[in-house]
Every structure is written in C-alpha cells, then in structure tokens.
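Letters spell out the chain; backbone shape is given numerically. Both lines appear below:
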Amino acid sequence: MKKKKYNAFVWVAFAAIFYPMLAGFLKKDNKPNLTGIVINNVNPDSLLKKDKSMWFSGEYQSLKDDYNNDHWAFKEKFVRLNNQFYFKTFNQIRVNSFVLGKDNYVYSEGYIYSAFGDDFVGEEKIKSKLDKTKVIQDSLKKKGIDLLLVFAPGKGEYCIEQIEDKYKHAPGRTNYEAFSENAKRLGLNVLDLKAYFQKLKPNTPYPLFPKFGHHWSYYGECLAVDTIIGHIEKLHHCDLPDIVWNKIDVVDTARSRDADVLKSMNLYKNPEQNMKLAYPDIMFEQDSIKNTTRVLTISDSYWYGPVYMGVGQNCFAGGQFWYYYNKIIPNPSATEKVEVWQLDLKQSIESNQVIMLLYSDGNLPSFSNAFIDDAYELYTNPKTYYARVERNKSIKQFEKQIREKPVLLKKSTKKSQDLQIPLDSAIKLDAMKLAGIN
C-alpha cells in the first residue's frame, strides 16, 4: 500500500513538473495577454542562425532564458492569480508606483505626494524654469506664435477623500502653487484646469475622475477640451471648430480610458465597477476654414485622451502631440518611428500658431521635460544649442534603440526599479554605457 502511495506521489510530481513544459511545446502562441508588462517577442533562435558567436559568448543562452520566461504556457494565468492573491489578501495592486485607496480607488503614488507637497522641487528651480518660459513666450509672440501653459488636475488632490489615511498630513507648499503664483507674476499665458475642476467638483452631475482610472474621466476630458478650445480662441484671436454633444450615455461599466489602471492590474477576476460614468456622444464642427490654427501640444499622458478623440485633426489643424517631449503623435514617417530630437526644433516650433504645454500636477516637477531649456537656448544662444545637440546625438540614438527593443527596454525597466529612478533616467544611463560614456 505504501509503495502504491509513493508511486502515485511520483506520478503527480512528474505531471506537475512536465505538464507546463509539454503545454508550452504543444501551444503555438504562448504570448501572454498582459497589460503594461514588457514582453520580449524576439526568439533568439532566429538571431543565432545569423550569428553563431552568440552561442559561445553566452548571449544566446541569456536571451533564450528571457524569451522562455516571457512565453511559457501558464505565465498569463499565474501572473493574474498572483495579482489576485495580493489584491484580495493584502489590498495591494501589482502595478508599478500605483496604490489602492479607500473603496477601491486607485492612485499613482506620485500624485498623492503631489497633493500634499511631498514632491516640492523648490522655489528657485520653479522660478528659473518660468523665467525661461517668459523669454520663450515673448520671443514666439514676435513671430505671431502664442505659448500657453495648462495646469491639469491630478487624481490625488481631486479625490483626496479616498486616499489612505497613512498618506495624509498637513499639506506643505506644492509645485502647483509655486507654478501658478510665479506664472501669474510673470504674465505668462495660463489656463488653470486644476482650479476649474475644483470649482466644478461640488455640483458636477457626473464623475470627473473614475475609480479605476488614472486620468480624468471621459466626461472630464470633454469638458477640458471644450474649455481649451475656448481659451485658445481668446488667446490667439481665432475661431476653432467646436466640440459639441447632445446626448450622454450613463453606464456603470467603464469605457475609453476610464479603467486603464484596472487593465494594468492584470487580475484573474475584476472587481465590480459600481460607479456611474458619463459618455457624451461628441461631434466636431466640420469647417475647413476654422480648422487652420495649428496647435502643437507638449504634454504628459493626460493628452492621450483628446488625441484618441481626434482633437488634433478636427480642431488643431493636424497639430502634433509630443508625448513627454519625446514620442511624436502622429508619427511623421511611414517607414520608421521618429522622435522629437530628430526634428529641426526651430522649424517644428515655427510651423505652428500655438504651442501648448499641458502637464498634470503630479508631473510638474518635470514640467515641459527638456523643451523649455532647449527652446530657451535655441532662441538666446543658437550656436551653443546646435553644438550640444550634435554632441548628444549618439546618446539619443541609443536611447531610441533601447525604447524600441523589448529585450533592452526590460533591462532598463529593471534598473529603474532597482535604483528607484525614473525609467527615462535608467534608459539614459544604459544609452551612455552603450555609447562608451561613463
């Protein structure tokens, strides 16, 4: 009897070990359907055929391990079960830098810090940044181009009631307060959507921020776009196509980007979405005469929603969106991905009538990314600007290479997590290493 039990145990152990391997061989497509996780899709077998030296250097074995780890048969199921366990047992979500608040509200932790002033970068840094912005605004105005700063609301302060108590304390000086006060002092063109949303909050008929989303709700986006259009019309003395809606669908299941964090949570079973969300049935005024004011938008991820709506094409005369002053949307080339550093900055700026810098409060520490510094140097000392651009070209090329190759991007992502630095900083460190710069 003991021998039979022993044999049964052996067979169970054998099946547990070899079944996933067998399933991996039998299943043709093992790519996991997971959101927000970098997956290496390049099988190194194809690379080995071209370069046999990879076998002897050990590079092939390392790449193969990484590929197999991403493509084993049960990766998706096990990731989802693991995330479900942490969600149910510890009230945690396995999304980098995101946390769970009260009543299942999800937050970017950085936006919580922003709400309480924990990420304040200092008065002098903000003054210096905005002093340069004033020079750029005045320089562009002489060319008939208006510069507009838009301060967008973040979920941390807007939904401050649902933040876990452990984060709460008496607020200190915030980046938003310093930016807003100094911009007013300098006479900069500003649209304060953050203040506008706070004004709407007590009486809004529909949520302006969703429970399971990071950005403003689709309804909030529609209000923001309508307000931006009206503000640009007054600033630039022009008439833009209007955004209108006569019908609003109210549902309890998120659409559009209103559950973008929920998708990234990669749960085995999603929680109930018990929030009524509004979805205006939008239309854009079709007027080719009005749609002639080209607006370039430099922004964080908050502008992706209006891009999906079609604001750039329908209202801004095909104006581009420069995501974090890096990725260009829509991509100007049909054959390769083009990044901002590859453009002629002066020509690109001056092909627009309005330059809009839109950043949410959680991203104010890196407001405009490097655009303000670059544009300031470009218009005050073009000789040093072009010399610096030429010196940094090789690093930029390697940065682009890292962003486009999942196997390299995964390494940089891990470095950013290990060193607790932004992903862009980790990419730059790896690019400098590839360029032979210490």
Remarks:
- The CA atoms of residues 5 and 11 lie 10 Å apart.
